[in-house]
Specification:
The chain is an alpha+beta fold. The protein contains 2 helices and 8 strands; from the N terminus they run ααββββββββ. β5 and β6 form a beta hairpin. The chain is globular and about 40 Å long.
């Protein structure tokens, strides 16, 4: 009986220590852990912060496009099997996180991060003063 009690206490202590060891990932870690798949984009005409079905602009040939962020601040966009015919299979870019990791500074402009977690990356243009924003959604 005593041995069972000690075993239960040890297992409980081990479980507690594992919970304490779990650390939240940084924005850079979330961005670079694996490729992102383009899942939608468009103008948010009703300004509700999401791309509704009526606002969706993604074409079928773009639904397998991916984006990879590297830890050295470089990245590539890939036009995969379902090509849109623009002749560019991959496009390189540079990136860095700015403003307390709330924005991405790309080589071609700045995007505000609306959501970044293990499953989803949602960014919008950072053009000040405009109510209607262009939103891009990626998933894993």
């Amino acid at each position: 009986m005593y041995l069972r009690f000690v075993l239960i206490v040890l297992l409980a202590m081990q479980a507690c220590s594992k919970e304490n060891d779990i650390q939240e990932k940084s924005a850079a870690q979330l961005l670079t852990q694996q490729e992102w798949i383009l899942s939608g984009y468009g103008y948010d005409h009703n300004t509700n912060g999401v791309i509704d079905v009526s606002e969706e602009s993604i074409e079928d040939c773009e639904k397998d496009n991916t984006c990879r962020f590297e830890t050295d601040g470089t990245g590539k966009q890939f036009d995969n099997t379902l090509t849109c015919g623009n002749g560019l299979a991959e496009q390189p870019f540079t990136w860095k996180l700015i403003n307390n990791e709330s924005e991405l500074d790309f080589s071609f402009g700045i995007a505000r991060i609306l959501r970044l977690d293990e499953d989803k990356l949602i960014i919008t243009d950072n053009s000040g003063g405009q109510a209607i924003k262009f939103i891009t959604v990626f998933r894993h």
